[in-house]
Amino acid sequence: EVFEDELETPRSLLFYWSILVKWIWLIGGLTALGLGAGVAATLLTTPVYRATTTIQIDLEPAKVVAVESQRSTDYDYPDKYYQTQYELLKSRALAARVVQNENLAYDDQFLNQGNPKGKLPFVSAAQASHSSEDRAARTKKAVSLLSGGLRIEPIRSSRIVKISYESPDRAAAARISDAVAENFITWNLERRFEASSAARKFLEERLQQTRQTLEASQRRSNDYAQRN
User: Fold this and answer.
1) Hey, how many other C-beta atoms are within 10 angstroms of the C-beta on 51?
2) Which residues contact 120 (CB under 8 A, 6 or more apart)?
3) CA of 79: how far to CAs of 55, 119, 134, 151, 180, in Å?
4) Are 112 and 121 in contact (CB under 8 A)?
5) Dihedral (Cα; 187, 190, 192, 194), 10-degree rounding
6) pLDDT string in tens for the chain (228-residue length)
7) What is the three-state SS of the chain?
8) Do 81 and 96 form a contact (C-beta atoms < 8 A)?
């Protein structure tokens, strides 16, 4: 029995080898076909480039004085502050700002990226009607393209944030990632300036009210002194 078992193994190997030899051309053809299809797909696929811009977000305490009561600020909750900044980076409001400042709604290369030449969603900027409907449609498309290719990646245990944009055009990828970073910085500065202006206006109004209250109190004191 042991001798028969030992003979069974080489017979099985020879059997499978004969099958492999018999269908070698079919197996080779299918393998070559698969490799050819993979190479063709690689050559026909549009390459996508990613550009990354790195920024540092610093946590700053609020400069506004709380007149009536002590109020908590984002400085007291850094996690919430940073999460807010990340959401602002990903917001459509910032994307719309970039589209407007970079005039991407009428940038043919950006607006038609990834589309075959015969199936462009919009005519060229030179042939566009520039009507309000055309402008709105182009702006909506540009904002969607920008938001779709944007990636925000905070670096753990740091204040560093990577802003990446993917595009079939390498120049556009670098341009958009830089533009998002620059517009985010400018937007933050404008928001801080507006907050400071609002705080200054509030304090000026309170100062005026206090001055009027003081003058009225002085008049009453003088009237009382004259009567008595």
Assistant:
1) 18
2) 112
3) 17, 46, 41, 20, 22
4) yes
5) -140
6) 444 444 445 556 777 777 767 777 777 777 878 887 776 666 566 788 999 999 999 886 555 444 444 455 555 678 888 999 999 999 999 999 999 999 998 888 888 876 655 455 665 666 666 678 888 888 999 999 999 999 999 998 889 999 999 988 888 899 999 999 999 999 988 888 777 777 777 788 888 888 888 888 888 888 888 888
7) CHHHHHHHHHHHHHHHHHHHHHCHHHHHHHHHHHHHHHHHHHHHCCCCEEEEEEEECCCCCCCCCCCCCCCCCHHHCHHHHHHHHHHHHHCHHHHHHHHHHHCHHHCHHHHCCCCCHHHCCCCCCCCCCCCHHHHHHHHHHHHHHHHHHEEEEECCCCCEEEEEEEECCHHHHHHHHHHHHHHHHHHHHHHHHHHHHHHHHHHHHHHHHHHHHHHHHHHHHHHHHHHC
8) no
What number of residues does the chain have?
A: 228
